[in-house]
Design goal:
Blueprint (H helix, E strand, L loop, with lengths): L3 H16 L2 E6 L5 H10 L4 E6 L1 H10 L13 E6 L3 H14 L4 E7 L2 E4 H9 L3 H47 L1
Antiparallel strand pairs: 1-3, 1-4, 2-3, 4-5
Helix pairs in contact: 1-3, 4-5
Length: 176
């Protein structure tokens, strides 16, 4: 029978899984308290990094409707619960892991779909949502400009063609 403390911990973790856009499971073995503090800061305001018990986390994930591989729960585990842009948090984890090889990204969840460590690294390689939206807007504006130039070129070309025909007709008419 679970103790009230464990039941409360599972309920809290379940709530975090449900309210998060993404969750990234990491192994933090060998990191100092100061390094963990730096990691928490590097994740930004939209992510919460918590050291968790494997069994309780697995139960909470199942209760939240998320199926995770048992291999993710080997060794000491910490979870980054992301409520904002998952790309920003994935970049923060990736960059921190480059400087601190003791941080190992095991895998995670994005919008209810399980992700491998490689998929999280690919996510970190994406540009932020704002940059992608700006590029999309720029591309759309460029296409509109091209379309406007095309529509403007058609009447202009028609006028030039008519003028050329008139000039040719005048030349031929004047020669006779």
């Amino acid at each position: 029978m679970p103790t009230p403390d464990k039941a409360a911990a599972v309920a809290e973790l379940t709530d975090k899984f449900r309210s998060s856009n993404a969750a990234v499971l990491t192994e933090y073995r060998g990191l100092t308290v100061a390094q963990l503090k730096t990691l928490r800061r590097s994740l930004g305001e939209n992510a919460q990094y918590a050291v968790v018990k494997n069994t309780l986390t697995k139960i909470a994930a199942n209760e939240a409707g998320i199926t995770l591989d048992d291999q993710l729960f080997a060794g000491p585990t910490a979870v980054a619960f992301v409520t904002g842009d998952p790309v920003e948090s994935a970049k923060g984890l990736r960059d921190f892991a480059k400087d601190n090889p003791n941080l190992v990204i095991k895998g995670g969840v994005l919008d209810g779909k399980a992700l491998s460590a490689d998929e999280i690294k690919k996510l970190a390689d994406l540009e932020s949502r704002e940059v992608l939206l700006a590029k999309l807007a720029g591309a759309m504006k460029g296409k509109q400009t091209q379309a406007a130039q095309l529509f403007q070129a058609l009447p202009t070309k028609l006028v030039r063609t008519v003028d050329a025909l008139r000039a040719k007709q005048d030349e031929q008419g004047g020669a006779e």
